[in-house]
Amino acid sequence: MDEVREILGISRRKAYELCNSDCFKVVRVGRVLRISKVSFDNWLDNFNQIGGN
Fold first, then answer.
1. What's the pLDDT tens digit per position in 34-46?
2. Range of the structural domain that residue 17 is part of
C-alpha cells in the first residue's frame, strides 16, 4: 500500500479508496491489503494512456 501511495503521490485514504474501487486486483491477508503488481502496472499504464482523471 505504501508503494502505491508513493508511486501515485496520494494520501492513505485515497489509496484505500482506489483499492476498494476494483481498479486493480487486491487481496486481503488478515488486516493487510496486498496489491497485484501486474494488475496495478496494467491499470497505471492504461491510466497514463487515457490521460488520467
1. 999 999 999 999 9
2. 2-49
